[in-house]
Amino acid sequence: MHYTYKQIWLINLPVMMSLLMEQLINLTDSVFLGHVGPIELGASALAAMYYTAVYMLGFGFSLGTQVVIARRNGEKHYTGAGKVFYQGLLFLSAFAVAVFILSKLFSPTLLRMLISSDNIYHAVMQYIRWRDYSYLSAFPLLAIRAFFIGTTRTKILTANALVMVVCNILFNYLLIFGKASFPALGIGGAAIGSSLAELAGLLFMVLYMRKHTDKERYGLPARFDPKLSLRLLSLSVWTMVRSFFCIAPWFLFFVAIEHLGECELAAANIVRSLSMLFFVIVNSFATTAVSLTGNLIGAKQTEKVMSACRRVIVLSYAAGLPLLLLSFLFSGTLLQLFTDDAAVIRTAFHPFCVMLSTYPISVPAYTYCNTVIGTGNTKAAFLFQMINITVYLLYLFLLSRTPGIPLALYWTAEQLYVAVLLTLSLSYLKKSKWQDKRL
Length: 439
Known about the structure:
Layout: H1 5-34, H2 38-74, H3 78-114, H4 118-131, H5 134-150, H6 156-177, H7 187-212, H8 215-218, H9 226-258, H10 262-298, H11 305-329, H12 331-336, H13 342-374, H14 378-400, H15 407-410, H16 412-431
């Protein structure tokens, strides 16, 4: 088993497109809401980060499931891969219901404690009230995605993501502005549109799997296996918590920005929305690294893991650096897509430049961290995350306690974050004995 640049690119491209289309859901929300008003634009940042932080718990479990699926696939134990997928699907479906209920019960109180502006709080709650329903579709969809990435059959993910984005743009246009006799629901319409898009994506993938997946080869549908489910949970709990803490600091970041003012919050949302496009490139290649690592270890070719990582990093630079340069050259045009407010655009420019400069460090940091996850040592990746979060939050706290700190300086917290992550992950891969870890 040898992964060339071309093979890695072909495996990764559908993953990248899938993640890109998902981020375009949040991006289109921001673009549409930026033309509703600065309060709605700023509130959508807080609401999207809050939703995404909870969503990452499900993503973390799917990532642990993907590790095991990839290992079984590399061992050519296909019924085992199918069984792992089915237990993951059952767990994530049940977990979605639990998260939905808990969010309905506790989100209003929690958000009221964190958000000082009444206008921002009420706008956030209009969004969360409807976005909660996305969990019921998004979590099962994560299990299906883990199956296709783990078995390196990723082409269908592009079509699925395209369905979701087209639906989201259509529903946003109809429900935010009240077109074609629909009511104008503003930020609530954006949340409804996103939830309906997630549902469309799930239905698309279910229909595809029913028609095109070799059920006999993968042993589907499998029986519920509580012992396997517990083993998956014991492996995935670290990636669940780690994934949550990858995004939770972003939510706290926006809480800190919210105290600077509504203009700063709107500007921060624009920069965050654009940064997600670069994060898609980094995260897609890093997610692919998980699958490549699992397959190589399963095939007993651990000596090829680091060379595969280096190829992933090279491809990630090749895909992202030209886009980074174009974004800087046309920064004014990009920022104006979100708002016509000159003050918001001026406030966003310097943080945007700092965000762009973070990309070169992010590529190796996330690739090597996800390689650690691909080895099966999810606990180590979790410990790295906890160290990272502590440093990040301490730095953010010091900034928030210093008067007159410009918004651009807040964005250097992300540079510190990825630098620490890179140091820890690379040190582990070079010095620890990860080659013989069993799953």
